[in-house]
Write a structure and sequence with these properties.
Rossmann fold, 6-stranded parallel beta sheet, 13 strands, globular
């Protein structure tokens, strides 16, 4: 009986509350505090613990009441004074915060955390001298905070080794020792995000920002979570706060996040304006840019650029500025070339290594698998190398079947596998030709390619060329990359004779077109235009052209389907409809489907696909052509603005290719009004799939054979070069 009383004593209850608090079990911690207070209402430590738990839940006013009650009962509690000061600081009440911190220090002169907090408040006031004195004193009394930092370092090491559960426990010990350890909360958030618990991750990041409002990694992670979970309005609010708090000291990254989120949302003009502003500042900013900033400029800003601007000569100026610094400051210091011996083709199969993170249901996966299956039937040996943590699905199994070997990295420091580990694997396998499917869209590909892990390195499919080495190649065709574009490439261009891609078709869920039209309240006689441009490919010029087409084709309908902010899409179309005198009800919006096969049902009712510009559709345009849908595409200057043109050439269709928005509108109207023209194109597209006379776009077997001949030629040239040098 006495043991039961001891187990339920206020002291034991508060110990339990502290343990629950350290593990993040706040509800249980609060319940234990209430029990302790019920048993002993005048026991101050119970109110301190209650305040700590309330603080962790961002219940600032409640925490203040708890700390004040504790001090009313016992004014000699330094921790209560300091925690109360932190609550005042969060409310922006700096003088009361200073007073509380100083009272805590009077009671406990060796209270290092109080000095750290006091320094932060003085600095917020602009009192640099007092801030430095407080910080110096905190350093002298470092031990408790030092213990927390030791735990923090231990947590980072555990996390880098993949021991995430253990890392969480250590970080929680660190914040228990130092409740104001913002960086530790941030690391907890990063782990929770990595494990998929984005709600808990956001809570941790917000906690970190409550303590340190200018903590850059916390801002960045919150922005990325909202963007990736399509909470785009929240993402825009978060990035505005990030720029407000950190814009002056972090101008490059705040701008990149701002551009990226607005670009993803579909707010083209906002993204473009910020892009141009950053571009004008970069010649000065890049001189002192960090490694992280240079990586982000290369993989993020250059990724966004062709979505916003179709001007190869102008774009190449920014590319050169960024790539030069990126190579010089980031890539070259850690790169070692390792020349490998070249084999003779007649003696052994050609060993082709393929690097990608998209051996799955991804645009790259849909466009490459058929060719690789055909290539594997030739005198080649294919090795696949994952360059990010694998995302496996039913398509991955098909990739693995064509591979002699599949390599998966063993460790993922900072979320990405070590480049040196991948490079060593490629070199040990003595790969003859390395094929890069992702270019700069996967952050570590440029670093892998810079090591030159194979005698011949070729980029293809995932994006435009990476622009990092004149000894490497980029695979295209004469339509997507005309002669005049070659001056803007660092890599040598390899041009396929017909099309830079070929595939054997797509599967779709069977659907009755009439029933699907009824489901969307569309009459059987109405002409349906389809636009599948996501936010990144969405702009008001595209909207204007499409609404102009609707205006000229009576009773036509536009279906828009694309990932982005639905409110942005709807507002843009409705405003343009109002301006041009078109009923906004003629634009219908469709959300995402659970699978690609489900998504492809929409082609059963579409009459015309209206392609995007300046970044054309890739897989979606190929899908439309496979399902015999005429396409209107605007042909631009850069590779990514000429994909639609290349695809149409690959099926021998000239109708629908426009050189301007005026021609785009003209073709849209013609294809809407002229049913015979549509039927003629549909007949051409059906004939293009005749097994006895396959069009180049559908002839993956011929593509593989043509590609193999190119590889043979490159291999022979390299061998001759090697002999001359020796």
């Amino acid at each position: 009986m006495d043991m039961d009383k001891e187990a339920d004593s206020p002291e034991k209850l508060i110990q339990q509350a502290e343990a629950d608090y350290a593990q993040g079990n706040f509800i249980a911690a609060i319940a234990a505090c209430h029990q302790a207070i019920q048993q002993q209402p005048d026991w101050a430590p119970a109110y301190v613990t209650m305040g700590n738990v309330q603080q962790a839940q961002n219940q600032i006013e409640a925490a203040i009441r708890s700390y004040l009650k504790a001090l009313e009962l016992n004014s000699n509690l330094p921790q209560a004074h300091v925690n109360l000061g932190s609550m005042y600081y969060k409310q922006g009440h700096l003088e009361p915060a200073i007073s509380a911190y100083q009272q805590g220090i009077r009671l406990k002169p060796d209270f290092a955390a109080a000095y750290w907090n006091l320094a932060q408040v003085f600095r917020q006031q602009g009192n640099v001298q007092q801030a430095n004195l407080a910080q110096q004193k905190a350093v002298e009394l470092q031990q408790p905070r030092g213990e927390a930092h030791q735990l923090f370092d231990q947590g980072k090491q555990l996390a880098s080794q993949g021991q995430l559960k253990e890392a969480i426990a250590v970080y929680q010990q660190a914040v228990h020792l130092d409740p104001n350890f913002a960086e530790a909360y941030c690391q907890l958030g990063i782990i929770e995000r990595h494990q998929g618990d984005v709600k808990q991750a956001v809570d941790y990041f917000k906690k970190a920002l409550d303590i340190q409002p200018d903590l850059i990694p916390a801002h960045q992670n919150i922005c990325a979570i909202y963007r990736d979970t399509l909470s785009l309005k929240s993402a825009r609010q978060a990035v505005s706060e990030y720029r407000h708090r950190c814009g002056e000291k972090d101008p490059i990254m705040t701008a990149i996040y701002f551009i990226s989120i607005h670009h993803f949302s579909g707010l083209y003009q906002v993204a473009l304006d910020e892009f141009l502003r950053l571009e004008s500042q970069l010649p000065n900013l890049i001189q002192t840019a960090s490694e992280l900033e240079l990586k982000s400029l290369y993989t993020n800003l250059l990724f966004i650029q062709p979505y916003l601007i179709d001007h190869p000569s102008k774009n190449s100026q920014l590319q050169k500025l960024i790539v030069e610094s990126y190579l010089h400051k980031v890539i070259q210091p850690q790169t070692k070339e390792s020349p490998l011996s070249l084999k003779t083709l007649s003696k052994s199969p050609l060993k082709i290594g393929i690097i990608s993170s998209h051996f799955n249901r991804h645009s790259v996966g849909w466009c490459s698998l058929d060719i690789l299956q055909e290539l594997a039937k030739l005198s080649v040996e294919i090795n696949l190398y994952f360059t990010e943590k694998p995302r496996l699905d039913d398509r991955t199994e098909l990739f693995e079947k064509v591979a002699h070997k599949v390599y998966t990295p063993q460790s993922y420091p900072d979320g990405l596998p070590a480049v040196t580990e991948i490079v060593q694997a490629i070199q040990q396998d003595q790969i003859d030709i390395l094929l890069d499917l992702d270019s700069l869209t996967v952050p570590n590909h440029a670093e892998i390619l810079a090591h030159k892990p194979a005698p011949i390195c070729i980029s293809w499919l995932g994006f435009d060329a990476p622009q990092i080495s004149s000894e490497h190649y980029f695979l295209s065709d004469h339509y997507a990359s005309p002669v005049e574009s070659e001056a803007f490439y660092t890599e040598k261009l390899l041009k396929m004779p017909h099309s830079f891609v070929a595939l054997s078709g797509f599967k779709q869920v069977t659907v009755e077109a009439i029933n699907l039209r009824k489901a969307y309240r569309i009459n059987a006689e109405q002409v349906i235009y389809l636009c599948v441009a996501p936010g990144r490919k969405f702009n008001l010029e595209l909207v204007k052209a499409q609404v102009e087409i609707l205006k000229a084709v009576p009773d036509s309908i536009l279906i828009h389907k694309g990932m982005g902010d639905p409110d942005v899409f709807q507002a843009a179309y409705w405003q343009m409809c109002q301006t041009l005198g078109v009923s906004p009800h003629r634009v219908k919006f469709i959300g995402r489907f659970p699978s690609e096969e489900e998504h492809r049902k929409i082609y059963a009712i579409a009459d015309v696909l209206l392609d995007s510009y300046p970044y054309n559709g890739g897989t979606h345009t190929l899908e439309a052509l496979w399902f015999n849908i005429p396409v209107v595409t605007r042909k631009g200057e850069q590779f990514l603005s000429r994909m639609g043109y290349s695809f149409l050439q690959g099926v021998n269709v000239e109708a629908g290719i426009a050189d301007s928005w005026e021609e785009y509108i003209h073709w849209g109207i013609q294809l809407g009004k002229n049913q015979e023209l549509r039927r003629s194109i549909q007949q051409q597209l059906m004939q293009s799939k005749d097994k006895n006379n396959l069009a180049p776009l559908w002839n993956s077997k011929q593509f593989a054979q043509d590609f193999y001949q190119i590889l043979e030629t490159l291999q022979a040239e390299k061998q001759s070069e090697s002999i001359r040098r020796s």
